[in-house]
Design brief:
The structure holds two protein chains of two kinds. Chain A is built from no helices and eleven strands. By secondary structure, chain A is an all-beta fold. In chain A, the strands form two sheets. In chain A, strands 2, 4, 5, 6, 9, 10 and 11 form a seven-stranded mixed β-sheet that branches. In chain A, strands 1-3-8-7 form a four-stranded antiparallel β-sheet, with no helix packed on it. The radius of gyration of chain A is 13 Å and the shape is globular. Chain B is mainly beta. Chain B has no helices and eleven strands. In chain B, β9 and β10 form a beta hairpin. Classes of the chains: A mainly beta, B mainly beta. At the A-B interface, β5, β9 and β10 of A face β4, β5 and β10 of B.
């Protein structure tokens, strides 16, 4: 069966520090991968998605970037964090087929101080 | 911008009662999906209804879709304390092989024992 791992679960970082969040998927090949952010008490906002190794699409201009160095690895990064980067970051995957649901990781709670 | 808007924002009922949550959206859709999120966790896919379907069932869940009114509802029958969670509707738009879900802000459901 497929599983998705996301770490760390929580992270407290000072303003101006770098960021690296990692997500890996097991049990499937060539998945679509996604990064979402959820503000407190709100819905999810799509940040990045990838349909293959090295292919990254950005949905909103921001202080973050994403990379996909391997088929089942997705990384969210920042060179210098802003206070507004605080939030709950969720990685997800799907099979890239119509009508296939998204499968989410358990998220990373990022607090920028 | 948010495509789906859930109503109500919060709902508190007694165990055993039925819970109904509504979702409205603005543009035409391919599918509408419902997800559940336990506090501090990732989202779990509940059900997907296609634009040409009017009703779908899964266990104690019943989803309806009215494309003329651009609305959907999620009914949970015979609620249990374990159903306490936030519920989100999401409309999907496929672009270049990736699924872009646009989420509403969610309904926070509390089941009182």
């Amino acid at each position: 069966s497929q599983t998705i791992h996301q770490w760390p679960a929580t992270l407290v970082q000072p303003v101006g520090s770098p960021l690296s969040l990692e997500c890996t998927v097991e049990g499937t090949s060539n998945p679509n991968l996604y990064w979402y952010r959820q503000a407190a008490g709100r819905g999810l906002q799509l940040l990045f998605y990838s349909v293959g190794i090295g292919q990254i699409s950005s949905e909103v201009p921001q202080n973050l970037s994403a990379s996909r160095p391997q088929d089942r690895q997705f990384i969210l990064s920042s060179k210098k964090l802003l206070l507004s980067d605080s939030g709950f970051y969720l990685c997800a995957w799907d099979l890239g087929l119509g009508n296939s649901p998204l499968h989410f990781g358990n998220g990373t709670r990022l607090t920028v101080t | 911008s948010q495509q789906g808007e859930e109503d109500p924002q919060a709902l508190s009922i007694q165990e055993g009662e039925n819970a109904t949550m509504n979702c409205s959206y603005k543009t035409s859709i391919n599918n509408l999906q419902w997800y559940r999120q336990n506090s501090g966790r990732g989202l779990v896919h509940l059900i997907l209804i296609r634009s040409n379907e009017r009703e779908k069932h899964s266990g104690r869940l019943r989803v309806t879709l009215d494309t003329s009114k651009k609305s959907s509802s999620l009914l949970i029958t015979a609620s249990r304390a374990a159903d306490t969670a936030s519920y989100f509707c999401a409309t999907d738009r496929w672009f270049q092989g990736a699924q872009k879900l646009v989420f509403g802000q969610g309904t926070r459901l509390t089941i009182n024992p």
